[in-house]
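Apologies for my clumsy wording, but are you able to produce some protein sequence, whichever is easiest, and the tokens describing how it folds?
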Amino acid sequence: MTTTKSDIAVINSNSPGITITLESTGIFLGILVSASLLAGVAINVISKMNRISSSITQIEEALKGYASNAEKIRELDKRFDLHIQEYINRKDVVQMVMGQLDQKINHKFKRLLFYTRDIQRFLQKDTAFKMREYEENTQPEE
């Protein structure tokens, strides 16, 4: 078996240089195709990494927005707690004042009843004053 070597271009072999053959051209073209495929794969990997980086940046910005919203919610929650406490304090004060007013009214009513009975006894004793009895109606009229 003999292999034949085909020459594409022959440069004088006496001069220093490169001899280009079909085999060397095939190898050179194979290297170029492989390099272009590797460059394409590298470009795809780089573009995917850029998209991932962009997505991460967007996520970071969204998280910063959520963090600021969470801070606002905490601040509103504190203010709401203060308003609730203020409402509870006002309610307690109003209940205390109403209780004091109720006690004061009952005290005044009892004193008035005592003075009225005292005057009635005085009038019965010194004059012909007749005291009328009345029923105290505690149920609301319908």
